[in-house]
Amino acid sequence: MLFTRKDFGDDFKWGVSTAAYQIEGAHAKDGKGSSIWDTFVQKRKKILNQDHGNIACDFYHHYAEDIALLYKLNIPNFRFSLAWSRIFPMGIGSINYKGIDFYNRLIDFCLEVGIDPWVTIYHWDLPDYLHKKGGWTNREIVDWFGEYVATCSKYFGDRVKNWMVLNEPMVFTGAGYFLGVHAPGKKGLSNFLAAAHHATLCQAEGGRILRSLRTDSSIGTTFSYSHIEPARKTDDKDNRAVKKVDALINRFFIEPLLGMGYPTNDFRLLQRIERFMYPQDEKKLAFDMDFIGLQNYTREIVQHNPFMPFIKAKIIKASKRVTNYTLMDWEVYPPSIYEALKQYDRYENIKEIIVTENGAAFTDQITGTTINDDKRVRFLQDYIGQVLLAKNEGVKVNGYFVWTLLDNFEWAEGFHPRFGIVYVDFNTQERIVKNSGKWYSHFLQNTLTASSELQNNEHFE
Ligand code: IFM
To answer: For the segment 360-399, what is each residue's pLDDT rounded down to a tens digit?
Structure first.
């Protein structure tokens, strides 16, 4: 399939996404407090190569150069997150005005060069001080978060018109409170369900606060979504396993927001979340967002497995099944984003879908000053082609953001998997635009025709 930017229409939002802890560095600069990630990276054997985000891309000091680069690359929208502990070093109470100044400078500079800021309020870096009080497992977080959201709106809402309340609640509660592989490293079903319920309350409450304070902004929140298929298509147990995994990883946070409650019918164990619910909570979980941010990277193949605690299902790694997978061991499967969009489109209450993240980590080939990342160029074309396919079928998708601008700190995987369309030399902080960055730039300038390979796609057969 051949396509150009024009095929998406003039109103379609194109951009790149980032997150504070992954790029900012300056972890203790100008009054910033410690976050759970600042602490977690100090623990032994939690992060590959003992990497940490203390400096990362030093975006705190290089933001002007990076925004100028965005401008040069014709990228009209920039998604970034606010570090809660830069604004409130202790989570609540006294404001750190140097933190406010930093974000004001960043927002102002974006606007000065004509780039729209898209701001995520929470991308996983909870102030440590609040963690010591129980963090996401403590229901008081609804009030703490409310104070933080209102403060963001007060100081930045005159200029920021696109907000995302949370980033991927399934990932930060699942990896951080059930598996213990992300900050704050807690484990167990109770911790997870408590954190999940409070995050779901906060995502709706955050939306309500933003809307009550500014009526002229567009409010959304983001979710990870992977298309799931059974290992053996006709096996009942595998199909039941798919339903459970789908309820957990794809539906658990979005359905209560849409007023549908938690999807406990397809995974009964999740009913235990009711232990953390107060009367009237079900209503409080719902809020009519202006848009939903969908983040898709791959598809998952699921098999029944009686030895897996609680869920009795296992995700089979891509490297055990296919040859085409990324450094994260995620299958390259472009139709996954099409399936994800179609699924979201089936939800009645979604007004608009924006793909707020999509991208891939591969080993880049460096020759002199050229960074050849053909695999990423192919990946982007193929996934964007699938977005167009869904759009042409009437799906209300109206934006696409590449994950990510700069190579950065990839959480537990450290700096090893490079996702950027711009290469970062972490010793010198030099930035080099990769071929994928050049490709995206030309595509956005509408000077080239993209082609997507329709691999594995039944819709074209
Ligand atoms: O780097 C992350 C990001 O923080 C959240 N979404 C997925 C990305 C790639 O793993």
So the answer is: 999 999 998 999 999 999 999 999 999 999 999 999 999 9
* Residue from 411, 415, 416, 421 whose mutation best tests the ligand 1 pocket (most atoms within 8 A of CB): 411
Measuring CA to CA, how many Å separate 175 from each of 169, 179, 192?
10, 5, 9
Ordered domains of the chain (ranges, CATH):
2-451 (3.20.20.80)
Relative to beta strand 13-17, strand 397-403 is: parallel
Here the tokens at position 71 are 């401008």
Q: How far apart are the C-alpha atoms of 157 and 161, rounded to whole Å?
A: 7
Please report the pLDDT score of residue 454 as a whole number: 57
What DSSP string describes 154-206? HHHTTT--EEEEES-HHHHHIIIIIB-SSTT--BSHHHHHHHHHHHHHHHHHH
Number of helices (H), then strands (E), in the chain: 15, 17
Residues with catalytic roles: 168, 357
In this structure, the strands spanning 365-367 and 370-372 are: antiparallel
Nearest by Cα to 227 from 249, 260, 208: 249
Nearest CA owner, ligand 1 atom 2: 410
Query: Closest Cα partner for 103 from 26, 163, 34, 156?
Result: 156
- 229 in helix, strand or coil? strand
Structure tokens, 5: 């930017």
Q: Are strands 227-230 and 299-304 parallel, antiparallel or unpaired?
A: parallel
Identify the DSSP state of 148.
Answer: H
Whole-prediction pTM value? 0.97
Ligand 1, residue 123: give the atom nearest the CA: 4
